[in-house]
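Re: the 462-residue chain
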Amino acid sequence: MRPVYKVYRKRWIGVVVIMLLNIAVSWGWLTYAPVADNSYRFFHMTSYTPINWLSISFFFAFIAITPICSYVLHHLGIRVTVYAGAGLSIVGSVLRVAGTYGRKNNGGIFALVMIGQILLGFAQPFVLIVPTHYSGLWFTNKSRISANALMSLSNPVGGALANLISPIFCTNPQDVPRMTLYTTIIICGCSVSALFVPASPKYPCSPSSAVPKLGLWPSLKIFATSKVFIYTTIIFSVFVGFFNAFSSLLQQIMTPYGYTNDDAGYTGAVLIVAGLIGALILSPIADRFHCFLWYIYILVPLIAGAYIGAIFMCTTDKQYAGPFIVSIFIGVCSFTLLPLVLEWTQEQVHPASDELSAGILWCGGQLLGAIFTIIMNALRYNHDQGNPPQNMKRALIFEAVIAGACVLLLPFFTSNKYKHNRRIAMDEAIGSTLAPATTNDDITHLTDSTQIHPVTSDSKLV
């Protein structure tokens, strides 16, 4: 009696839906950051700080709602989780439109925009923690990292689009309402795609995906006592936090040197496009050879070096080589490392809950993103200080020092026990004793002698 493992073509529909939702939410996150100067003038503010708090509140909203998201994904499944994220995205976006068009000629209603931004922050974990769980259910160990990369990295793609397009939509303070409206139309259009997301496959795609996951509380106990999970969470959180802070503050990092909002937008686009190209090339290699640790050994020092380079990337002669080169390194290395760490962490703690592990990793990144943004904002020179005034060199030095400290954790990962990947070992050990899995959508032709193990929920095999 042999179990049958099946790979479905429709799994790619879910990948596209989750990509669109992540693009929509992150575009909402960075709507105002690329045009911070126009935004604070529209809202009649006296500094950048309230605009920066639109991003910071987004991070804290993510942290507050993540435990609920993990619970919903674990108990109610992918479809309900994605529906919740899409619904919150639509409501939050509409509230921001109301906040900018209400009292349009008198600075809008900033409190309403902030509420909408918080709801968008609530929406993000409902779509951002799904990729690791989805790839484990629908993809084999030959494509999990690549699938996770497509879904997870669509989040910074939305940020890149915001960096590139917000300056086009908003060339002066009075364009802020129009920019918000256009962004809302895009977010709502992407959110409607949630109706097409598949739930869980009827038949597991591999032996490891058929194993019932542990509950949330037993999984939390494993994470709390696992050194590899703790150290990985530190590195992941620091680098995600700095990427978020760097993306949020890029316009404010560059404009004191004479760069324009468009220049900052182009740099943000280079950051994301280079990262996507690098991840699309390098992730399949990691899927093919499962060389997780080698990637970590190489990429972590490169990212730290890129943040050191960011201290010197901007100059008053407004050259582009510095910002573009630094952005390429940060983008390629960060985008490649992110999905790989999400998948490798689950390899080390399987069969612990992947919903919870991804939630903790992302929550740490958002928490540090908020903290780093606050600290870097405070380290900015005042308008009558620094050369040039209001530059953020001190903030970039802080960023480089903390990123460099993460390199000191790498010797911990040299232990041989961390070279063992549990899910991959299970798939290869069991898979080698079975006939090849069918990939046909119609499996009604299977013989009665074949034992079928249907998966009827996102988490459990019955």
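The two ends are 16 Å apart (CA to CA).
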